[in-house]
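Protocol step 4 of 5: obtain the predicted structure for the target chain.
Materials: sequence only (see below). No template structures provided, no constraints applied. The aim of this step is simply to have a reference model before the mutagenesis design in step 5. Sequence pasted as it appears in the construct record:
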Amino acid sequence: MPELPEVEVVRRGLVDFLTGRTVDTVEVLHPRPVRRHAAGAEDFASRLKGQVFAEPARRGKYLWLPLTSGDAVLTHLGMSGQFRVQPVGAPDEPHLRVRFRFADGGGEVRFVDQRMFGGLSYSEGGAELPAEIAHIARDPFDPLFDPDEVVAKIRRRRTGLKRALLDQTAVSGIGNIYADETLWRAKLHYARATETLKPVQIKGILGHAHDVMAEALTVGGTSFDALYVNVNGESGYFERGLNVYGQEGSPCPRDGRPIRREPFMNRSSYRCPKCQPVPRQVRW
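Step 4 output (structure tokens):
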């Protein structure tokens, strides 16, 4: 699933193509991507006709498309959801699910999703922040992000450190890739018990998370395959800058030990066994 840098790249890509444009028609080519809209595909399309988009917004890994009416289109990219911008009449993508056409007759915005785990829904009153994601914590790029508040939340969790970083109600935007990269920079094991960390250590971890995601953002995020691309179809290049994630068997850039891949929450964690040793007190 795309994490903060990838979603922010998509948001920025949509700004120029959506902001201020009036919807002419919405064509739902498959009902599954609008399954979260309880009233169905026809209602979703009819509600958007004539509406004007404001600037796309994001919190953590969650993207929404505000409307000047005060409502919004809440989006979920899932594993393979993409927004693509195309000229009118351009050939349809193989997995095109929803098409937005505009009153100005300019380029279309398309929602493409191969696996269809993502989707779109209409959020009444959701322009500022959709109620559906109001429980999501602020992310490290949010101007109102409060490190002291996040430190207190993480220390109260009494869980493993990586689990705490992945908890979107504590701090949002961090997924499996950037959690592993953050912990490598912090020289900490993913199962370190959160209650054993000092506040200054957690603030340092949050700083590493900000830095690694900022670096990823500058190169378009991380793309391992064609399932994540920007709105113009370009891939991100941060895969080339990954130190541990997906690097099983490769030498650690710090000490040369082979990177290990270990099972974690039905997925994998990557770490260096020397500079990220198993701590005495762990919480898996």
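Step 4 remarks: Residues 230 and 250 are 29 Å apart (CA to CA). Strands lie at 23-28, 57-59, 62-66, 72-76, 81-86, 96-102, 108-113, 119-123, 260-264, 267-271.
Proceed to step 5.
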